[in-house]
Amino acid sequence: MINLIENANNWLILGTILIIIELFLIGSFVVFLPAGLAAIFVGVIYKIQISLGVIILSSWAISLVVWGLFSITLSFLIQKYYKDNSSKDINDY
Predict the structure, then answer these.
(1) Which of 3, 35, 79, 88 is the most buried (most CB within 10 A)?
(2) What are the distances in angstroms from CA 73 to CA 30, 35, 43, 69?
């Protein structure tokens, strides 16, 4: 099970699937897009580790924490910069 988490290709596949779910199935939730981008980010980190021989993510727990933190950060950034503020409220004076 831990080998599945520490595999770079699995993270890249998971990220792609989450982004496809966001784009085609649900679309209005800003849940799957940040999680998918964060999964791709973790997959790229694992690919860099393999190619350069350096250790950035030393265990599966750290990779899950990085995925969660990056996903939450991206979620807040996406909602902040792409929130639709075009509707005027009748109570604004």
Answers:
(1) 35
(2) 12, 10, 17, 6
Is residue 93 included in any domain, yes or no? no
Residue 20 maps to a domain: yes
Distances (CA, A) of 26 to 16, 18, 44, 69: 15, 11, 26, 23
Torsion of CA 52, 1, 22, 13, to 10 degrees: 40
Q: How would DSSP label each residue in 34-64?
A: HHHHHHHHHHHHHHHHHHH---S--SHHHHH
User: pLDDT tens digit string along 40-54?
Assistant: 999 999 999 989 988
Domain span at residue 40 reads 2-80
User: What's the pTM value of the predicted model, to 2 decimals?
Assistant: 0.82
Distance separating alpha carbons of residues 11 and 69, to the nearest angstrom: 15
